[in-house]
Amino acid sequence: MSNVFGATSTADEVLSGVDLRGKRILVTGVSAGIGVETARALAARGAHVIGAVRDLVKAERATAHMRGDVAAGGGSFELMRLDLASLKSVRTSAAALAATGEPLDLIIANAAVMATPFTLTEDGFETQFGTNHLGHFVLINRLASLIRPGGRVVSLSSSGHRIANVDLDDPNFERTPYQPYRAYGRSKTANILFAVGFDRRHRDRGVRAAAVHPGGIQTEIGRHSHAAQEQEMIEQLNRQLAAEGKPLFQWKSIAQGAATSIWAAVAAPAEQIGGRYCENCHVGTIVPDGVKLSSNSEGVRGYALDPENAEALWKKSEQMVLESF
Question: 3-class secondary structure for 38-95?
Fold first, then answer.
């Protein structure tokens, strides 16, 4: 099953023939884009899906269309409030889930912001690092004991991790000039390193973690991008790809964008994806730092999978959130 899917596969294709009845799944960012599609596809196969969102009203509107699929598949779906830019909200949400005593089979850390202007979270962290990494770091670690043996954690990263390694000396850009995409790259590298660190800590009890790159998808995560700048980047990329004799860049659909998350969560063998970076429904290969990559190329930078780098980030993250895991 794990070898027949690729860049154009959809979430429904990956889940064809899969029965998820009895599975309990948490997905963050279920108010738009691939978060909604991920939740729909899983619940339509019988799972009980909890969608964690910052804006409940927006999420209710965004998920209204999926209720029929969920009911037809024998699954169920609920929403809960979670603001990843507030550790108070994260801890409250985690406590509410823990209080039920109900186990989880899967957590998909899907929510993210991208290329935002410079702002700080409620706790004083640079917004992209604080939301994309630290919020999920606290949430998932606080829920770790609820994950059943055989369960998985999927951390959504991006090919944008190639823009920058984490900077543990200046995570909040206090001494470094702020660059929106560099900050995004740091946070996406952190998402991969978190999966490496979490997998190392929990694999002995049968819980595995992986990071995934969903692909280039036009969703509202790009609302801070400028259309003209984006078009110029695509044209430059296509010139480079044409010169290399490669196919031109193509956006993925939302259904295709959700496929790799679901592949890593459900379809791929656990030992294959544990502690790894996945893209286009397969495990990505490490590309040396000196090798130039276009955004349409595959591959993960070695620093994003380095165990020592993962441990250093874990310790720094604990210091920043004032909590040890």
Answer: HHHHHHCCCCEEEEEECCHHHHHHHHHHHHHHHHHCCCEEEEEECCCCCHHHHHHHHH
